[in-house]
Specification:
The structure is a homodimer of 231-residue chains.
Chain A (H helix, E strand, L loop, with lengths): L1 E3 L3 H13 L3 E13 L3 E13 L5 E4 L8 E3 L3 E7 L2 E7 L6 E15 L8 E2 L2 H10 L9 E9 L2 E8 L5 E6 L6 H17 L6 E7 L4 H9 L3 E4 L2
Parallel strand pairs in A: 12-13, 13-14
Antiparallel strand pairs in A: 1-8, 2-3, 2-8, 3-4, 4-5, 6-7, 7-8, 10-11, 11-12
The structure holds a DNA duplex (15 and 15 nucleotides).
Chain lengths: 231, 231
DNA sequence: CGGTTCATGTCGCAC
DNA sequence: GTGCGACGTGAACCG
């Protein structure tokens, strides 16, 4: 399941075999990449790590960063020998987005059978929603939740309810410090609700987040929306 | 620079050595992960690929998807032997966000010296901006660009100019099909400009994108903003 | 399949 | 460092 300093033919065969067995392949070597499609990008030759997953995802990682320096998702993957070098071709058949990885040399290759199992995340927006539902006063004293993901012409409101005075309230939840887009999002929902409900209905909007930036605070104020810090 | 089926002590030493030499390490093995911090997540034991980069980024990849199933950026990385097993500890010293990767077994380890070189992307918003500047009619017949990234109280406008009638125009550029957030963003800029400029100044907003969704079209219309298809 | 939104988003840039 | 917006964003969810 491993090769060291293979020649191009061996490497190509190794990759092809592994892929036909639904294995993942980890490659280390000197390679250049080109991507063409909706955007374009080329990388000069360099030592990189290439991971080919059984779902045809190909990741090219450089020395730093969480994100790959090049990648391909979706389309087919083929391993060929071109000009006496291993070359990976990734992309949809008709070739809208295409990634090519051209190896000058392969230091190392390993094949393995990865598991797909995953775990659940907690601390997400859903958790915050559940907390708000079980303790509506977090939003505001006297707030009552009536629905979640209530549909409006502008999209679904995270939490929909009424305040102590009976006014309709749209609640937008953010698990982190909220920025201007959150204020705009809430404003879209509130505007849509005002249009949707009877003209005499009062509609308020409350942004629930651990924190907001100053500009966001100003935006909320200008739109007559409220902020309720949580967590 | 390679190990096959190492015992935990060898694996830990291998990782530690590689890291002290500023090398990246590619690991394949059966491992479980836990992440704790702003959110929480745990993965059961499974065969995965772990990539430790010299910048202390750690990526845990499963069988599918472009994104890692677990990762750590920033903090320190240490490789220890715990309960006769390799364990990677990643996180800031005081431990806000912590990732732990516990190996049941290591099938394979490889160390290498990755290059950091990267290439530039074309087809991005900057390219679209340059195209618009060199050919303002793309925005609208008679449009004249006066500035890019012009500052407003709501943030910088992509392109700022005037239309054939001399009215101020804020242009928001999107390289892909634009959604509701783009309309809201443009509206924020236009509102800020109307407030900022003389009261009698007419201010228009034009969203420039290859395409927009229907809801976005409606939002633009409600706000009196325009859409100009490009590309 | 398209539309919308969340994300441990990540990343880069300006203040 | 914080704030802000783009990203070849990716990924899930829903009609």
């Amino acid at each position: 399941m491993t090769l060291a300093d293979p020649d191009p033919e061996s490497a190509a065969a190794f990759v092809a075999d592994a892929r036909s067995d639904d294995l993942a392949v980890s490659l280390v070597g000197v390679c250049a990449t080109t991507f063409e499609g909706c955007a374009e990008r080329a990388l000069p030759a360099g030592v990189r790590h290439v991971l080919c997953k059984p779902d045809d995802t190909v990741l090219v990682h450089g020395a730093s960063g969480r994100d790959p320096v090049a990648w391909s998702s979706g389309g087919d993957v083929t391993a060929n020998v071109v000009d006496d070098a291993l070359e990976l071709h990734c992309g949809v058949g008709d070739g809208a987005d295409t990634l090519t990885v051209s190896f000058e040399s392969v230091q190392h290759a390993a094949a393995f059978a990865p598991t797909n199992e995953a775990g659940d995340v907690s601390g997400t927006e859903v958790d915050l929603k559940e907390r708000v539902l079980s303790n509506p006063d977090l939003v505001e004293d006297g707030f009552r939740a009536l629905a979640t993901e209530r549909e409006t012409p502008a999209g679904p409101v995270d939490v929909y309810g009424r305040d102590a005075d009976g006014a309709v309230v749209a609640v937008e939840l953010k698990t982190r410090r909220a920025g201007p887009s959150a204020a705009s999002q809430l404003e879209r929902y509130v505007t849509a609700l005002r249009r949707d409900l009877h003209a005499d209905a009062e509609v308020r909007g409350i942004l629930v987040a651990p924190e907001i930036t100053e500009k966001t605070r100003r935006l909320l104020a200008e739109s007559g929306l409220d902020f309720s810090p949580v967590e």
